[in-house]
Amino acid sequence: MSLASGRATISRRRALRAEPLLHLIAGGALLFAASAALDAWRDRTSSHAGDPLSSPTARGSAPRAPIAIDAAAASALERGFVARWGRPPEPAERRALLGEAAQDEMLYREARLLQLDRHDASVRRRLLELLRALGEPRAGRDDDQLVAAAVELGLDDDVIVRRLLMEKMRLVLQQDAAGTPIDDALLADALARHRSELVQPESVSLEQVFISTDRRGDAAAADAHRIAAALRSGALDLDAATGRSDALPLPGDVRLQPQLKLQARFGKEFADAVQALPPGTWSEPIASPFGLHVVRVVERRAARTPTVDEARATLVEIVRRERARANLARGLARLRELYEVRVADAAPPAAGATLLASRERP
Amino acid sequence: MLRIGSRTAGSFIVSFTVVGVLVARLAIAASPPFERTEDRSPCAHYDPLRQPLFGETHLHTAYSFDAAILDTRNTPADAYRYAKGGVVGLPPWTDTREQFAPEPPPPTSPPEVAQYPYCLPPARCEFTASRAAQLPEGRALDWAAITDHAEQLGEANICLFEPTFPCTSDAQCPTGQECGTVIQQRTGASSTMCTPKGYSSPLCTLAREELTRLTSGIAAVTIAAIENGAENPSRVDYCDATRAGDGARCLQQAGQVWQQIQNDAEAAYDRTSACTFTSFIAYEYTAMMSAGRCEDAPTLPCWDQLNTGQPSADCTAAPPGASQACTSDYPGNSGYDNMHRNVIFRNDDVLALPISNVEAPVGCGNGADCTRPYPIGSPQQLLDDLRARCKARPAEHPRCDVLSIPHNSNLSGGAMFLTPESLDEARVRSEMEPLVEMMQIKGSSECRFMASMPGAWNATDEECSFENESFNRLGGEWLAPEDRTPENLPPASYVRNTLENGIAYDAQHGVNPFQLGFVGGLDNHNGTPGHSEEVDYARHGAHGDQSFAVSAQILNEKYYLGLETNGGGLTVAWAEENSRDSIFAALARRETYATSGTRPTVRFFGGPDVPADMCGRGDFAARGYASGVPMGGTLAHSTASPRFAVSAAMDPGWPNHPGTKLDRVQIIKGWVDAGGATHEQVFDVPATGDGTKPIVRDTRALPGGDAAAVDLRTCRPTGVGRATLCGVWQDPQFDPAQHAFYYARVLEQPSCRWNQQYCNARGVDCSRPAGTCGSTDPAFNGRGCSGDAECGGGVCETPLSYTRWEYQQCCSGLVPSTVQQRAWTSPIWYRPSNAEGAS
Q1: Which of B214, B652, B693 sits opposite A125 (nearest CB)?
Q2: Distance between A124 CA and the closest CA of chain B, angstroms
């Protein structure tokens, strides 16, 4: 509670400075404020038919203060870019830079509107940390009072608090507003679309002869081809070829390992190449991070696709993830519609988005 | 050379093809070279020549008090999911209860163990993870041991239990719980719920308050001081059930948590012939030695006084008769000697409760108040008990087997490896502790080197300055550079010195108390085993909400979980198959190597009969086993100088993340001379594969300067390096009469340390000023600056992506920007025959 009242104070102070970052309601109404704010926010921002939160009796949209980027803020951004990359941004980069900054500011402001910082342990921790860094004495105050004092000092306008709140707002946007249940039809569809990730992998047994490029340099490729040809023609058997090959600490004989394990040990390039090999014949040299391998697949056990029941947990996760991604994209698009972005200089703003308000300074 | 002729389901028919002198003497697949103590299918991928299985030996979850108060919510079940390639959440948790009512319905049956539920976005619940972690494709671990702190399994469950089951009477609650009044943190409303007895004790109430109020964790420190750090540890008072000091409540609760740990391990273990993953039931024994009180000074106060004969500085400064603890005579005057050990069981035949520091404290010597006088600093009571109750396989535990792995000797103030006081102690250490943790998040323990005093720790090896910490005790103060002396950081804190002391003891007494192979681990408190990549450490850290997103502490060099910490290590076991019996046998015979977190593959064989041309053929392992002993083995007496063959391959990386190539291979030899003095030397391994091509540091000679380098902005290597290295080395100074050990160290090319990854992610570029002036004065506006004072009345603005503190710490040079990741093989020991039957 004291956090809220402390913030109300600072918000009044800020309001006097015509910087209405916060619209806080103190007192008993507070408990309901956040959910009401969320509903209102959805009403105002939803433009999608079929979204149950897009009520026809929308409660009206509180106007957002424009995100204004004055010349100083724009040039600060550019200087940041220069500091990082050592050159000024290209026009497209500049637009992306401004768009990203404006989006961050939107996320931050919406998070503050929804009071996502209320009772947020991480924000509190950060504020206490900042207060300690200032050498502010505890003076018998409890943590709530200290947090309020930190807000009073404006310490909540902080890079790390911003990071946290932007992240939290992204979480809010990812929420599935409709709460559509995930049924078996959806899962079956996901299974069909993600078959390649979900398939229970085939396993393979192989024999190999390793030729070290480090050890043989330019001769390695020719040596490997010669050994491959000799193995295929029968001029060399495996043991003889082994005697002409190079040491590798990894197992030469691989027995019934799935693709991912092959990849873990020999790299993806090698594992993919092995997957394409017909069983029983010696391959052309195959590259791995270690060098060249002549490989013979001895046995291959087929892959199989799991049923929806077998893969249920994973499939639910996939559907949720896809929904989250779509929700976030929609939410960000709505935010861009909500905010007018004013760019002080002559540069054209990014489509639907813009620039960053310069950070407040006391 | 051994070939698998044909395969039938579940069994192998093996045929041998003998090539030249080779006799694959260990390769008998039909009856594996390890005892099968489990009911399970043999593995389809069984390889008699053994395969490198990457694993975790040291990891904490929410069942550890100190992890839970860091807001970690991952349990062992979550940790195993992560190890197998799944996604887990990390704090800070977004408490969306304010925004998303209603709360979840109460459970249908009362939980006995804290559930620590959370969800990953986009699911909604009261604890939504704000960060998610997952191993990259193909980087799932092969095996893991989860090692929660044994002392507080019950204590944590009592204090940090999250009540969810409504009740009206005690009878509705499980054993050990009661129907108590719970006040909702959020609403202040009270309700009655099943809570563990002791939940409402002042200490538990304080612990929960601290967790929500984010104060300094006094409750946890208080509990640790009584249970982990006291000379005669006991359980805290809220553990009492029927009489003072019985600890019964906490033990009852610990039993339930221990059962859950076993259940989670069982659920994660693949007992099918696919053998995709192995879990181990394990725990951490968490002894911390403060060793006495000043008032005991006339008898035996501090072990270090015992060793030096000098009284502790804090005791001499204290008033006579003061009862303050003489915790230290080091600068900083704080902290504890870290005596921790990870205890790993072979299979599911485990003790009913872990043996913790409360039951079997580290020895406190014979000070006035020391009631259980085992030798000071000795783990003998623990090891005796583990042997008698498990490894000796008494009737009640016929399949039990166990081993203990000391860790962080670098933070032990030298106490971890004090010379045994009796042969019994030496023998039990030799038998029960085959391994030591070489590397973890809180530093490398291999050895120590400072350029200002080369040889001070017996090493003139500059690679010994790798990931050294500037702390000498757990929770102690950071040592300023001038205080980093062998007096404050005793040589016995380091593994290499300890290996030397071990063979010196063996030469004298006929038993080696410190015959230690190597493992690496994390000691991560996030519940994410194998999370050792620098880039991941930069992103997620290892200590819950001491997370990088929230706290600037991680960049603080003087904070013990700060800048000097690292991504942590891994253990590789050379095992026939991915099963408990096979991996445990590898651990027990020390056929393991430690890495500093990356995944190179290394094989190492030694013996006088090892062929000189090992590198010029493709059957390195078969010939190695046939002609010598692998890493971890012991060579018997021989007049011929042994050869050592090392074959190493780089970490292959994962898609779009190539591994770092190798730089060189070294062999470290330690030996003891006739006078009992110990020596060590580092040899770069020359190429003997065909005798013509040098393989060591050849990249240094390339045109264009230092070839072993990395672009700090992109973290891409600019050097050349080698994908594989192979060499055979013969000891040029071999003396058949001298005890010796040899281990291989494989260095990668330099790569970015995590702090560089962190700073890059924040956009910090140390070659440029921290910020730029924003000023109305055109003479200042846009000028680079490090503070407002340089801006002529304007403001020095840092980019939004970082703070000035972050810039300052990123660019301080306090720790290196790059690191040469590495692997250390377990040693091969040489034991002359005059050692046999000695003592």
Answers
A1: B214
A2: 8
Cβ atoms of B474 and B338 within 8 Å: the answer is yes
**Amino acid (1-letter code) at residue A213:** T
Cα B551 from Cα B771, distance rounded (Å): 21
Contact, B216 vs B223, CB < 8 A?
no
Tokens of B303: 């072990």
Residue written as token pair 């003087």: B558
- Side chain identity at B796, as an amino acid letter? C
Provide the ipTM.
0.86
Phi first, then psi, for residue A141 (nearest 5°) are -85, 150
Closest Cα in chain B to A272 = B655
Angstrom CA distances, B710 to B315, B533, B565, B661, B776, stand at: 50, 17, 21, 12, 41
The whole-angstrom separation of Cα A1 and Cα A55 is 32
Q: Give pLDDT tens digits for B374-406.
A: 887 899 999 999 999 999 999 999 999 999 999
Q: Where are the beta strands (DSSP E) in B267-400?
A: 278-285, 288-289, 337-338, 341-345
Mutation choice for A interface testing from B4, B11, B13, B45 by most A CBs within 10 A: B45
CB-defined contacts A:B, below 8 A? 252
Which of the residues in chain B have pLDDT under 70? 1-30, 95-108, 124, 185-187, 213-216, 290-334, 365-370, 547-552, 687-708, 834-839
Lowest mean pLDDT among A136-145, A243-252, B17-26, B722-731: B17-26
CA atoms within 13 A on the CB side of A239: 11
CB crowding B361-381: b at 16 or more within 10 Å, else e: bbbbbebeebeeebbbbbbbb
Please list every residue in chain B whose beta carbon sits closer than 8 Å to the beta carbon of residue A224. Answer: none
Q: Which residues face B725 on adjacent strands?
A: B648
pLDDT digits (tens, 9 = 90+) for B148-204: 999 999 999 999 999 988 888 898 899 999 999 998 766 678 889 999 999 999 999
Task: Give the pair of three-digit tokens for residue B73.
Answer: 């919510």
